[in-house]
Amino acid sequence: MAEQTILVVEDDEEIRDIIRVYLEAHQFRVIGAGRGDEAVRLVETMQPDLLILDVLLPGKDGFEVCKEVRAMSSAPILFLSCKKDEQDKITGLELGGDDYITKPFSPNELIARVKANLRRPHLSGEAPNRMRFGAVELDPVSRSVTVNRSEVTLSRKEFDLLYYLARHPGRTVTHEELFREIWDQEMINDTRTIIVHVSNLRKKIETDPANPKHIINVHGVGYKFILPLQKV
């Protein structure tokens, strides 16, 4: 397997170096940046496999960087911040972030999160078929999604979430199951992570996100994916 590249965007050089040491010990290639504007340029030129992104940065803050990166890349974005405000976490996820860790953090937890966000769900079968539901078409091989034949940009976690739900139509998928299968975590730390990702998905694939036809809430339990009725 080719060496995967991680872009670490952190203005504190000491923290950046600590992260670098741990990542390189796990055979990752590491690129460092201390400014938000520098990070955007590096994403364009180096196309990293994952970003570890601080929120408080000079040049452009992490939220601005995330927004610009999402316009050109689906690479997982793992926010790293000393800000513990719940709204900051929600903002990061709504902008397309995949995960969020607050400082101080355990380097081993960080490595585990990096590996989990780089791991893609196994595609069963030799050649998975495209999936169509209503105006939406999903291609699991190219990891692309179109709505009314226009491609929509999904983050890696958004795509994985949609694909998993679409492969289990009509069945209630619990929060616990989604955390285990998509986030590779056994325990639910915060269901808001799933709620925000589902909200983002609905905005991108549902005709009326406030009244979804495909991704339906099962109150207090999880979600159910509904396929449109077939005409006969």
Automatic annotation (TrEMBL):
The keyword Cell inner membrane does not apply. InterPro entries: CheY-like_superfamily, OmpR/PhoB-type_DNA-bd, Sig_transdc_resp-reg_C-effctor, Sig_transdc_resp-reg_receiver, WalR-like, WH-like_DNA-bd_sf. This is Transcriptional regulatory protein YycF. It comes from the Bacteria. Residues 128-227 form the OmpR/PhoB-type domain. CDD domains: trans_reg_C. The gene is yycF_5. The modification 4-aspartylphosphate is found at D54. Residues 128-227 bind DNA. It comes from Paenibacillus konkukensis. Coiled coil: none annotated. The keyword DNA-binding applies. PANTHER family: PHOSPHATE REGULON TRANSCRIPTIONAL REGULATORY PROTEIN PHOB, REGULATOR OF RPOS. PROSITE patterns: OMPR_PHOB, RESPONSE_REGULATORY. The lineage of its organism: Bacteria, Bacillati, Bacillota, Bacilli, Bacillales. Residues 5-118 form the Response regulatory domain.
